[in-house]
């Protein structure tokens, strides 16, 4: 159920994120910022089933709204114009982004009350862990 993601999540740990950003083609200066920033993720959902995912940090705030299984255009925080689609598989909220012949996937799931985001590009995997704020 997607509802379990609804709430405000604070980034607590980030592993291998610089390597992941490098793999998707993020430039050095943007990676420096990306490594310093600890964004909060805010998930909400309306009655029509539209999910909003907002990433809030001192550096940049981005928000995307989507419906499961419906492709949409996304301008990412690092300024990639991607085609994105979210699916819900085996308890995971899976986001696939495609651009310039490349594909990356982000698998978000709740385990032990924490939200983990696994960022996958080819053989590079980064894991970011968030804790729910009361």
Automatic annotation (TrEMBL):
InterPro entries hit by this protein: Calycin, Fatty_acid-bd, ILBP, Lipocln_cytosolic_FA-bd_dom
Gene Ontology MF term list: retinal binding; retinol binding
Coiled coil feature spans: none
Bilayer-spanning residue ranges: none
Gene3D superfamilies, alphabetized: 2.40.128.20
Start and end residues of each Cytosolic fatty-acid binding proteins domain: 7-24
Keywords: Retinol-binding, Transport, Vitamin A
Described purpose of this protein according to its UniProt entry: Cytosolic CRABPs may regulate the access of retinoic acid to the nuclear retinoic acid receptors.
Family: Belongs to the calycin superfamily. Fatty-acid binding protein (FABP) family.
Protein name, as recorded: Cellular retinoic acid-binding protein 1
């Amino acid at each position: 159920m997607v509802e379990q993601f609804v709430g405000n999540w604070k980034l607590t740990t980030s592993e291998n994120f610089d390597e992941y950003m490098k793999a998707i083609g993020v430039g050095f200066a943007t990676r420096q910022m990306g490594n310093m920033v600890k964004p909060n993720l805010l998930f909400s959902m309306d009655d029509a089933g539209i999910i909003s995912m907002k990433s809030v940090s001192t550096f940049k705030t981005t928000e995307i709204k989507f419906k499961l299984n419906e492709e949409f255009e996304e301008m990412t925080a690092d300024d990639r114009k991607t085609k994105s689609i979210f699916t819900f598989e085996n308890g995971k909220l899976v986001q696939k982004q495609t651009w310039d012949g490349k594909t990356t996937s982000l698998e978000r799931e709740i385990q032990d009350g924490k939200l983990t985001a696994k960022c996958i590009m080819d053989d590079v995997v980064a894991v970011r862990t968030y804790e729910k704020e009361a």
